Amino acid sequence: MLQPTLTLFEKIWRQHLVATADDFDLLWIDRHFVHEGSFHAFDKLDSSGREIAHPELTFGIADHYVPSDLTRLDDDPEVAGMIHLLDVNTRRHQLTYFGLGHEDRGIVHVAAPELGLTLPGLIIVCGDSHTTTHGAFGALAMGIGATEVAHVLATQTLWQRRPKTMRVCLEGHLTKDVTAKDLALHIIHEIGSDGATNHAVEYTGPAVNAMSMDARMTLCNMTIEAGARVGMVAPDDTTIDWLRNAPRAPKDEAWQEAELHWRSLYSDLGAKYDRTVIIDASNVAPRVTWGTNPEQSLPIDTGIIPELDNNHSTLSYMALNPGQPLLDLLIDQVFIGSCTNSRISDLRAAATVLAGRKVKVPTLIVAGSNRVKTQAETEGLADIFRAAGADWGESGCSMCVAMNGDSVASSKRCASTSNRNFPGRQGPGARTHLMSPAMAAAAALYGQLVDIRQVTGGAI
Amino acid sequence: MKPLSQVSSSALLLLNDNIDTDQIIPARFLRKPRSSGYHHYLFYDARYDIDGNERVDSPIPSSVPQRSIVLAGHNIGCGSSREGAVYAFVDFGVQVIISTKIADIFRSNAIRNGLLPIQLEQDAFDTLVAYCNDRQAQLKVDLEHREISWGENHRLTFDIDEVIKQQLLLGIDDIQATLAWGQNIEAFKHRYLADHTWVVPTTGTSSKN
């Protein structure tokens, strides 16, 4: 009998199909990550008297409420209380927990992959929209809400309507100093912040094949900013080599069985996608957002603030005028971190720019996990940051999300490697410009937006 | 979850495109217990200035009576998956959100909290906006008949999955409903985990702290 021709997404979906009712499929969930914000779901579970169906597949990680300076927890009982609440909930339900002080703790989307908890072919959920990140490993990973979190805790399953499929084919190769972050901002600009709503995105093509796992995670991370709950890359040698020594990945015979399975996870030749978008990666320049939505980005070298028809609140919020160039725009501070850009390669890129120089504006650099932090300290990156005058913080979500004490003050302009420039995202009235780690580091040196290619090329 | 069938109200207009969930409820309020009522935090930073005074351009001025139906700009609810955004609308008394596009996770959260998400074509949406812009006009939403009506015999129908319609009409607890599939789940689990022995993670180092 002929095998059906399937996309990567369809293969994983089918492998997890428990039951179907009308247009909805009941899916088995392989991994569930909970964080401090999952307390609503624990409350729902507890008030109904239900237990967690599979505690061995559920992992707790403290990240959102962890400030870059842990001593601040003493002064903020509400924030400290959120972490304590996760301690209590994970203990009571006997979950594996990575709390404050644990060497494996970090932002869930950084820590879980490096531990080998994220694997190809799994369905992974978490009450956080940037769960798309785990798709970099060829997992089907999606962000869910608190009621869905409670449902997964109680049943280890989730009802979902199957989304459409979208292939984003990345032709050509990124040029020097252009990163996965720039490419992600370019794609979102091209298809719009709702361009992939109700779709599962698969990235294919030479540009993604050439990417490191760190870069693929950045790319998949930003997929939600185009509206898709799922962004994925088929596993290949890069993926499998990356996982080989991960501490909680399968070992020995289980590894061999897993690898055999992972090698079958690709979109079949001739598989049909509902939509295909082709992007030439070789034409992408370093990009910076100017507005209050991630689709509002432009190349740093040619970017001019556009006229807006009906939504002038964007430019007044950002304190920008039509016709103004992005290049040389003065900034007040820099944040390098978040689940988008806080992995070791991101920190190396920032350190390369900052080495032997001094920052002109306050700069906060936060590793995505304690493992990354330790590695950065061992490699001497942290010394470079401190010598440049930057602050080096405790790993966590930090200044991306303004809920742990790290925030940007009202009307201050921040060059940030995070994922969202929404009004108020980094604090009430904060003005966020999204960019790559090297671009943010260069902005820190000059106190203004510069073209990283001019810095590395010695032009400035 | 409270059942929902018919809602009559004048509409609250929030017509900016891409209203993200960070705007709907800033992250710093997500630590608040639900029992405190999330309506306090709905559009907090757009409602109040840094000193806590009401802004003149508040999207939901305190002088305007409470509304149960929202007409929202394209791609409402994009961004963060925080269910607090839905709690904020629900606790404010909103029962129906109508837009030309509603972001996936927000939409899913809405359904699970008894908030009816309705997606309309641009023309139909514009008609409702024009009608509601002019006067303190009432809209009537009838979920059973999938119908929005207004004025003198104006009406349009909207699409919604039958399963979701029933869930909202009856206020079904989805965990309870899924537990009825317990045998399917058990059968799947035994077969799947036997075929994929590598899926359950190794314990690695023991959990500390």
What is the structure about, briefly put?
The complex is a heterodimer of chains A (460) and B (209). Chain A has 460 residues and is an alpha/beta fold.
Q: Care to describe what's here?
A:
The complex is a heterodimer of chains A (460) and B (209). Chain A has helices at residues 8-15, 39-47, 77-92, 108-115, 146-155, 180-191, 206-209, 213-221, 237-243, 252-262, 313-318, 344-354, 370-379, 381-387, 437-446, 452-456; strands at residues 17-21, 24-28, 31-34, 58-61, 96-98, 123-126, 140-143, 157-161, 164-171, 199-204, 230-232, 275-280, 287-289, 297-299, 333-336, 363-366, 391-393, 413-416, 431-434. Chain A is globular. The termini of chain A are far apart. Chain A folds into 2 domains: 8-277, Aconitase, domain 3 (2-Layer Sandwich); 287-456, Aconitase, domain 3 (2-Layer Sandwich), CATH 3.30.499. Helices cover 31% and strands 18% of the residues of chain A. In chain A, helix 2 (39-47) packs across helix 5, helix 6 (180-191) runs parallel beside helix 8 (213-221) and helix 12 runs parallel beside helix 15. With 460 residues, chain A is of the alpha/beta class. In chain A, strand 9 (164-171), helix 6 and strand 10 (199-204) form a beta-alpha-beta unit. By secondary structure, chain B is an alpha/beta fold. Chain B has one domain (6-172): Aconitase, domain 4 (Alpha-Beta Barrel). The longest helix of chain B has 14 residues, at 182-195. In chain B, 39% of the residues are buried. At the A-B interface, strand 1, strand 2, helix 3, strand 5 and helix 5 of A face helix 4, helix 7 and helix 8 of B.
Written as H for each helix and E for each strand, in order along the chain, the element string of chain B is: EHHEHEHEHEEEHHH
Q: What structural class should be given to the helix and strand makeup of chain B?
A: alpha/beta
Structural class of chain A, by secondary structure, is: alpha/beta
CATH topology of the largest domain in chain A: Aconitase, domain 3
> Count the helices of chain B. How many?
8
Number of strands of chain A: 19
Q: Let me know the number of strands of chain B.
A: 7
Question: Strand percentage of chain A, roughly?
Answer: 15-25%
Number of domains of chain B: 1
What helical percentage do the residues of chain B reach? 25-40%
* CATH superfamily heading of the largest domain in chain A: Aconitase, domain 3
CATH homology superfamily name of chain B: Aconitase, domain 4
- CATH level-two architecture of chain B: Alpha-Beta Barrel
What CATH first level of chain B would be assigned? Alpha Beta
- Placed side by side, the strands forming the largest sheet of chain A appear as 5-4-3-6-7
CATH topology of chain B: Aconitase, domain 4
Specify the CATH architecture of the largest domain in chain A. Answer: 2-Layer Sandwich
What's the end-to-end separation of chain B, in Å? 37 Å
- Total number of distinct structural domains of chain A: 2
Distance between the termini of chain A: 64 Å
Arrangement of strands in the largest sheet of chain B: 4-3-2-1-5-6-7
